[in-house]
Design goal:
This protein folds into three domains: 8-76; 85-137; 155-196 and 208-329, Ribonuclease H-like superfamily/Ribonuclease H (Nucleotidyltransferase, domain 5), CATH 3.30.420.10. The protein is an alpha/beta fold. The chain has helices at residues 8-20, 24-37, 42-48, 53-66, 85-94, 111-120, 128-137, 155-170, 237-250, 270-276, 297-309, 317-329, and strands at residues 176-187, 213-221, 227-232, 256-261, 282-286. A hairpin with a 5-residue loop joins strand 2 and strand 3. It has twelve helices and five strands. A five-stranded mixed β-sheet has the order 3-2-1-4-5, sandwiched between helices.
Length: 346
Amino acid sequence: MKKIRLSRTRRRLLVKWARKQGDSEVLTRAQVVSKVTAGERVARVSEELACARSFVYRTVKHYCDEGRDGLLDARQWNGQSKVDDAFCAGVHELLQGTPRDHGYIRSTWTRELLVLVMESQGHVQVSVSTMGRVLAAIQARRGRPKPIVKCPLSKRQKRRRLRKIRDLVDHCPENEVVVYEDEVDIHLNPKIGLDWMNHGEQKLLKTPGQNAKAYVAGALDAHTREVVWVGREHKNSDLFIDLLAELDAHYADAHLIHVVLDNYSIHKSQKTHQALLNFPRLTLLFLPPYCPDDNPIERLWRDLHANVTRNHLHTELIALCHDVGLFLNHISPWGLEPRPPLRQSV
């Protein structure tokens, strides 16, 4: 490495110029040159700036050969980029389908496969790492697909039914109540979910092995966000009827109680129809089939699983159900998140 010396003024001006470039890499290179030309040892400069010694040697050589321009990112002179807006739009369009649309057996995309398909469509060939940068540029992500079942109703029929429910919620008289109803399964075998772990370690989750279940039926007030719920050992008409009785008692002053719910069989059974005769203030409004996203109480069940049932450590169903009850009783009336984080009582 050539031994060079710069005055204090020139070193200060070099660092000041590098700051104006707005590039942290250029600033680091300028600091390397400033420290080396001030007489500091390469090992010390490498330690102070957290870079390799080879980087220090290479940076000083570029400065000696090209001056300040040697500190700039040389990729700006590489010419026109292979990746343009049309290329990014093509990748975005591919991600809306699957590789099977292009003759492959796979149903999921890989970066290598995206490179091949883009090239087959007449786009420029790029490396796998470049494809990774393209995916980051268009903000693509790897995630779990959401399984759905197609609604048998036409789009017009679906919109009409949903609009009727929304109009009722928006213009509900003061002496009437609208609630969203649904059931959720509580499994003793925990749902497995993501969790933070130390590097090189994987948490082990002991499961009971022999599964057991309990069931909760809940109703979410469309305006106050208050939750009314009941639980049973079986998911049948009796569970739903228990909830109807609880709603009838809870909203004793309401003139009418509108229950918005899905098309599950226990909601339409003969036993349920007979029980409704005892609750003349309750009316049932059915959502379009297979439309869980239009039932806000589904968000409550997701929060329940996230806070209680996912990765739980209970070995007995009664203890798990106790925590489920604590969570549901602790829900804030103005949101679906618990007030403070729930803690076990000592």
